[in-house]
Write a structure and sequence with these properties.
alpha+beta, disordered C terminus, five-stranded antiparallel sheet, 25 helices
Length: 827
């Protein structure tokens, strides 16, 4: 895979104009499709195959009840010490009803006094407004017309509030994206120290999100998508696109600084960092597409749409990013770095990541226990996780929807906001008997306030009854009542032969929540099992994948705990702008698991692959851990901070699903990146020692080598760059050829096995020549000179040991020396 990506990177760099033009043409085509083919979105939640969904289909087909059409309740309240039965108040409400009937797309409006929807204390009443179109087809102008018509009653000093699906609108969310991009730009500028390097990931991320949004708009013309789909895809698209471009740009800068030509540097960057990007992107895509196992259409559609956006981000990273790097060239580096291209870079002081890793390893047991303790405390609130779907009860306290909900609850009882619909069918005879029997049975149940007389269709084979429960739509009382009605349905069938089913918004929400809760276990098993298999392929180990998946579960538990504490219990609610607390949105756990799984594996790959590479090349387990953390901590820290800032920006939106998901993902990424991957993982791997990399021989033979870290690519490039006439390549740990076999021998050995600062691994007795920065060795194999390189050392067996003779030989064999300014590059 690394070799193929290396070729793609070089091609995109070399043909940058063509690649960029193709991406722009594709974006224009999708934009045109979005403008001409897009359709409405829907906020409806349903599950085919459930009782409530099937009963709703019966009502639509046999009684003409349009469940998808928008509806609204206009609530009128009397001022203090007054009622709604006075002449002035009744006249004002009548005028408001006439104005509502004239509003756009309104099919029917009920008069409160004629339909008897006035509270017993005569201080609260409501008019039901039915629309002829779905809620997604209503515009802001239509909603404003509704508000203006209802508020004509305010002239009589009446309070007027509005609720229902017709009043719901999608949050624009522009501020969230802007804040996330601004913070990401600041982090990238600090990380790279170059405006060009900082701007390139942002540019490609915006383009990637543009592709994703245009594709979703086109899809709305053919499929029913939730109004939250675009916001969720934007959230994920921005985060992963910036991070993936960050990894490739960072590697490209390193390759340039090592002296490679820009085109070769682009190929190496895409072949190495790009391989990890492909793996990380695939994990996110698979986790999102796997949402189809829930059997819930709207959840599947949201997952596929988000997965498509992530796939576009991966494709842009592998092709458009190297093309844009071709336009940027060496300007991607800072001015100081450009002056030092190709020169030997002294180790200098150890980066902060190395110091952190050494500190964790020195105190690995206390660090492990403390980290587990913090994560455990954060996860405790998750034990009280309560799932439900949002309704007007979870709206902002100062919103008209919330005020209307509270006024109806106060005037008519909490259950009035979540009525249940009983559907009775009798295809063999008159349904009247079965409907009356159903009314009697349900009326005797606990927590039932009233059951309306049945409404029978013209064919007299279907009847509908309305049940007002005592509890609110999302309470345990209502859930128990729905279960009790379904338990007694058999009595109706046994006595009359009719079929009794329960539906309505409250029943639908209960069924959706129960289905999602039941699907959570299997989905978690699929994701965790997938993580174990993929990581075993990458790291060729059993314990490292096990440790990684357990760390992922720790991150998920901590994120759930923080979510419950803030959005359900109300802790720090004011700080995060949570205006109303309540049950967690039912789709949250599955989405959180899927997205966080992909991001966690992302960090695992970038930190642990380098540790594996060092261990395979001879480093001790602890040295490998320190090296991997030292090289990966800076980039992973920047990536995690960008993720956190992008996700946290969505806390500012009004959409309940998006707000809570953004918060949970921000917390989950922070815990996973800094607590799990940079603290718990090094401590556990140090305790395991060599056992961390154990893999049974039979399993090693079965597993394919996917070469995520690009080791095979490195060997191929080294072989291509080696001199062909008088140079023999010997792979470590084999002994180098003798002078009798070849006048020149190139030995490739791991840097970690070196006993000096040059990293050659065979420098015992060597002394440094200060004039040239090279090494001269005189042992049993005779005098020779070592030309220093990051991973490759060419040993010359010569008779002329003068500096001039050595330099001439090096020039004759076209072997560059990274220790000199005139070097053409690393060889």
């Amino acid at each position: 895979m690394a070799t193929l990506l290396h070729r793609l990177g070089r091609f995109s760099f070399r043909r940058r104009g063509l690649v960029t033009a193709l991406w722009l043409v594709l974006l224009a085509a999708l934009g045109t499709g979005a403008a001409t083919l897009s359709g409405p979105t829907s906020n409806a939640f349903s599950i085919p195959g459930t009782e409530s969904s099937e009963a709703l289909t019966v009502l639509r087909e046999k009684m003409g009840v349009g469940a998808d059409d928008a509806a609204a309740q206009v609530v009128f309240t009397a001022p203090a010490q007054a009622t709604l039965t006075g002449p002035a108040q009744q006249a004002a409400i009548a005028e408001a009803v006439r104005a509502l009937r004239a509003a756009p797309h309104v099919a029917q409006v009920s008069d409160p006094f004629q339909s008897r929807t006035v509270s017993p204390d005569q201080r609260t009443a409501f008019a039901s407004v039915s629309y002829a179109v779905p809620a997604g087809d209503l515009t802001d102008a239509d909603r404003q017309a509704l508000y203006a018509a209802g508020r004509t009653a305010e002239q009589a000093d009446l309070g007027v509030e509005f609720g229902g699906t017709a009043t719901q609108q999608q949050s624009a969310g522009g501020a969230a994206e802007a804040i996330g991009i601004a913070v990401a730009a600041f982090i990238l500028l600090i990380t790279f120290g170059s405006l060009v390097a900082a701007g390139l990931p942002l540019l490609t991320a915006v383009l990637g999100v543009g592709f994703g949004m245009a594709g979703i708009q086109v899809a709305t013309g053919f499929f029913d998508l939730s109004s939250s789909t675009s916001a969720l895809a934007t959230m994920l698209g921005l985060a992963v696109a910036i991070d993936y471009a960050l990894f490739v740009v960072s590697r490209f800068r390193n390759e340039l600084a090592d002296g490679h030509e820009p085109e070769q540097a682009a190929g190496r960057a895409v072949g190495t960092a790009g391989s990890a990007v492909v793996f990380a992107g695939l994990t996110v895509i698979i986790a999102l597409v796997a949402l189809a196992v829930t059997g819930i259409p709207f959840l599947t559609a949201m997952g596929v749409a988000a997965a498509g956006t992530v796939a576009v981000a991966v494709a842009i990273t592998l092709s458009l990013v190297p093309a844009l790097l071709g336009f940027a060239g060496t300007r991607i580096l800072t001015r100081d770095n450009r002056r030092g291209i190709g020169r030997h870079r002294s180790p200098g002081t150890m980066p902060m990541g190395g110091h952190w890793a050494r500190g964790v390893l020195r105190r690995r047991i206390p660090a492990l226990l403390l980290s587990l303790g913090v994560a455990g405390v954060m996860a405790i609130p998750a034990l009280d996780l309560n799932l439900a779907l949002p309704d007007d009860s979870t709206a902002a306290a100062d919103s008209t929807q919330r005020r209307a909900y509270d006024q109806l609850s106060e005037g008519f009882g909490a259950g009035f906001n979540g009525p249940l619909l009983l559907v009775v069918e009798d295809n063999l005879g008159d349904v009247g008997t079965a409907a009356e029997q159903s009314q009697q049975i349900v009326s005797r149940l606990q927590d039932v306030v009233m059951v309306t007389p049945p409404t029978i269709n013209a064919a007299r084979d279907t009847a509908m009854l309305t049940v007002i429960p005592r509890g609110g739509p999302g309470t345990q009382q209502t859930k128990d009542l729905v279960a009790a009605i379904r338990d007694h349905a058999g009595e109706v069938t046994a006595s009359t032969g009719g079929d009794l089913a329960v539906t309505g918004t409250a029943a639908l929400n209960i069924d959706v929540s129960d289905k999602l809760t039941a699907a959570l276990g299997p989905y978690l098993a699929i994701v965790v099992g997938l993580a174990f298999v993929l990581l075993m392929l990458v790291f060729r180990s059993v314990l490292v994948p096990l440790k990684a998946t357990l760390g992922f579960l720790i991150s998920v538990a901590a994120a759930f705990g923080a979510l419950v504490a803030v959005f359900q219990w109300g802790w720090l609610a004011d700080l995060f702008g949570v205006e109303s607390t309540g049950p967690i949105v039912s789709v949250m756990p599955i989405f959180l698991i899927g997205v966080l799984f992909g991001l966690a594996m992302d960090y695992e790959v970038f930190l642990v692959t380098r540790a594996r590479e060092e261990y395979v090349h001879g480093a001790t387990p602890d040295e490998a851990i320190v090296t991997g953390t030292r090289h990966g901590a800076r980039v992973v820290t920047a990536a995690a901070l960008i993720m956190i800032s992008v996700f946290a920006g969505f806390i500012l939106t009004d959409d309940t699903i998006v707000k809570s998901l953004g918060f949970a993902l921000a917390v989950g990424v922070a815990v996973d990146a800094f607590l799990v991957r940079m603290t718990i993982v090094p401590a556990v791997m140090s305790l395991l020692g060599k056992a961390a990399w154990w893999l049974p021989a039979w399993l090693d033979r079965l597993l394919p080598n996917i070469d995520v870290e690009g080791e095979q690519l490195a060997h191929r490039l080294a072989a291509e760059q080696a001199p062909t006439e008088q140079t023999a390549v010997v792979q470590a740990p084999a002994e180098p050829r003798s002078a009798a076999q070849s006048p020149v021998a190139a030995v490739e050995e791991p840097a970690s096995s070196c006993e000096c600062d040059c990293g050659c691994g065979s420098c015992a007795g060597a002394r440094r020549a200060p004039a040239t920065g090279r090494r001269e060795v005189n042992d049993e194999r005779g005098p020779r000179r070592i030309l220093r390189g990051p991973r490759r050392h060419v040993i010359h067996q010569v008779s002329d040991r003068s500096a001039a003779g050595m330099d001439a030989l090096a020039e004759r064999h076209l072997i560059g020396d990274p220790g000199t300014a005139a070097s053409p590059g690393r060889r």
